[in-house]
């Protein structure tokens, strides 16, 4: 079997604010793989570790354990900009207002990576910039204007043009569409999807809304407190989320119909009802981090860390799917059949 383009094994990132404060395990044993041309979504609530994971993959944040292999090479301890892998990694951040230098024209912003990576002549760079602008849906004369002349959606198109200018193998999009209105967001997802398909470019798409991720990703990784709760094909997870946390997350995506939205809110409250198990500690050190909010938690959830249980073509880190621990494994098997 060939190695995936990106192979992440048991990655951990721990932050320590000062020597006196306790540490935060922002990423806690995350494993995932990404093939060329594949779009993988990373989804989770605020604080679940999505951005830290993205930053660690980019070499902007130091990992404390585990490994990152990119293009067949171990890049775990290499910083951004000094990666020895011959493969190209680019990023699109959430805020197109701060990620584009306001003092430079769009042409100058786009020519920088071309000069750094490609060593192009000015003429060749100019025609490549025109081509890139047209590809992302902007007029060629946009190159003479400054970022302030564009709307949020147009600026994000410029950021995407900058990312794809060097023909990356992988683009990490960190909440790249979250600041945009629904219609602009949908257009941006469509653009990213078609760019990925035509260039065999892999995309790691980080977002907090499962429905947004589902609109673009082939597979999805659900994070909670730095751990992978569920991972598998996007369509299957959206149609029948198995982990109690994924179910609650699915109910957080807004729907247009107010009555349906009210009903989803009610079901979400139920899905996040506190555990009925009597416990002394708040967040279990050794058990499942979701146990305190999980209405289905049982004693094992507080005492042992769930393993990645294979359920069809996905994995679910929940004792309810562990044949040796679940109170009613037969019921679960019927539920997932
Ligand atoms: N530089 C830092 N120093 C200390 N703790 C940090 C730092 N950056 C993030 N954290 C903590 O790490 C955890 C994960 O944060 P992270 O920003 O990766 O989550 P996220 O899922 O991207 O959240 P959001 O969607 O709000 O951006 C949080 O508890 C956060 O408070």
TrEMBL record:
Keyword Oxidoreductase carried by entry: no
Keywords in alphabetical order: ATP-binding, Nucleotide-binding, Transport
CDD domains tied to this protein: ABC_NikE_OppD_transporters
Pfam families the record matches: ABC_tran (PF00005), oligo_HPY (PF08352)
InterPro entries: AAA+_ATPase, ABC_transp_ATP-bind, ABC_transporter-like_ATP-bd, ABC_transporter-like_CS, Oligopep_ABC_C, P-loop_NTPase
GO BP term (any one): peptide transport
Gene3D superfamilies: P-loop containing nucleotide triphosphate hydrolases
Domain of life per record: Bacteria
ABC transporter domain segment(s): 6-250
GO molecular function, one term: ATP hydrolysis activity
NCBIfam families the UniProt entry points to: oligo_HPY
Protein name: ABC transporter ATP-binding protein
Source organism (scientific name): Nocardioides immobilis
